[in-house]
Amino acid sequence: MTQTLLLLPGDGIGPEVTEQAQRVAECLVPELKFETALIGGAALDQEGQPLSVETLVKAKQSDAVLLGAVGGPKWAGVERNLRPEMGLLQLRKGMDVFANLRPAYCFPALVEASSLKRDRVDGLDIMIVRELTSGVYFGEPRGVERGLGDKSFGFETSRYTAGEIKRVARVAFDIARGRRGQVHSTEKSNVMESGHFWRETVSALHETEGEGVTLSHILADACAMELVREPKQFDVILAGNLFGDLLSDAAAMLTGSIGMLPSASLSVEGAPGLYEPVHGSAPDIAGQGLANPCAAILSLEMALRWSLGRPDLADQLFAAVGRALEAGARSRDLGGELGTEEMAEAILDCL
Ligand code: NAD
Ligand code: IPM
Ligand code: MN
């Protein structure tokens, strides 16, 4: 049966990098069917909301979704629940993609592009498993109470249920079993109730379902420090929504550029996955053809592996990106001269 990949290019550099990922997909999987829909600011401008019901339905009916990026200064003033970023949060929640895999892998050719010394990142291969559909991003109640002068306040709720923690921790354990068998679970159990509950729940799950996995707990601030001090000590890092967001941007710099980092967001078995670069819409370089398309292309690689049942093609694509970098292909963020299209061209040549 023909598989469908839904493209959600979004805003800023989103459409630029998604177009290149589509070219690679057309070359690798000629039988793949593409659909395209709007999300983020582009959807708000044309459809009056950052994610329409129709687009969410399309996403759920596809085999995988490849998203570019959302947001930008153009929509800085719009009402909060219409912000482009809300479209992305609604999509993640609507697809129930609770397990966000963010690999921080340093390609051998990019060891010198990292802001860390060679010996710290040479051979680096970390998988961050970030919970994506709950925590402080979604917890209720939330809001802003105005008109109270200095006593006005803004607030949200950091809430995790045992079920939400267990299902993402299970994914982290499973992934660790296929790697070096080590999971660092991170939270702020020293100050947060939800963090304390997270630690307790992950520990209990490890007792019953943690065979073959060594579990350590580390406070999120210490984890950030250790990521830049001795990053190779980590195999799988398990984090909630907020800390996973912060730690994955920090991990990006270990790999050379945020333009290199893909992600896969997975739901339950058989449901479509959502694939997107870790980077945003990069308003500072949007429209100039300068964006690095690798994160988008590697997100396609993850889609081939995790949703489209083609790990063989994923391996080929991963190797082609490695060879292109080996041959000296570099976009500007990696210290080179290549534009978005030329960078994708270099990868296609290696395919
Ligand atoms: P950003 O990731 O867009 O940009 C941070 C820096 O990295 C910028 O200097 C940018 O030029 C550079 N950069 C990012 N991607 C790059 C690429 N592929 N190639 C070369 N350089 C790249 O983060 P930001 O500036 O904090 O956010 C901009 C907007 O994007 C905001 O509206 C934010 O909410 C949104 N955002 C969206 C997503 C997403 O859609 N998944 C993720 C992060 C941020
Ligand atoms: C990311 C982004 C998003 C997040 C924003 C744009 C909603 O920063 O995917 O890392 O915070 O999850
Ligand atoms: Mn982020």
Describe the structure in your own words:
This protein is of the alpha/beta class. The chain has two domains: 188 residues, Isopropylmalate Dehydrogenase, CATH 3.40.718; 141 residues, Isopropylmalate Dehydrogenase (3-Layer(aba) Sandwich), CATH 3.40.718. Helix content is 41%, strand content 17%. It contains twelve helices and twelve strands. The strands form two sheets. A ten-stranded mixed sheet has the order 2-1-3-12-11-4-5-10-8-9, with helices on both faces. Strand 6 and strand 7 form a beta hairpin. Helix 6 crosses helix 7 and helix 10 runs antiparallel to helix 11. The longest helix has 17 residues. Bound molecules: nicotinamide-adenine-dinucleotide (NAD), 3-isopropylmalic acid and manganese (II) ion. Manganese (II) ion (MN) binds next to helix 9.
Which terms summarize this structure?
351 residues; alpha/beta; Isopropylmalate Dehydrogenase; ten-stranded mixed beta sheet; two-stranded antiparallel sheet; binds nicotinamide-adenine-dinucleotide; binds 3-isopropylmalic acid; binds manganese (II) ion
Brief summary of the model shown:
This protein is α/β, with parallel strands linked by helices and 351 residues long.
Q: Give the CATH H-level superfamily of the largest domain.
A: Isopropylmalate Dehydrogenase
**What strand order characterises the main sheet?**
2-1-3-12-11-4-5-10-8-9
Gyration radius, in Å: 20 Å
- List the uncertain runs: none
CATH class of the largest domain: Alpha Beta
Query: If classified by CATH, what would the architecture of the largest domain be?
Result: 3-Layer(aba) Sandwich
Count of the separate structural domains: 2
Helical content class: 40-55%
Kindly report how far apart the N and C termini lie. 25 Å
Major beta-sheet overview: 10 strands, mixed
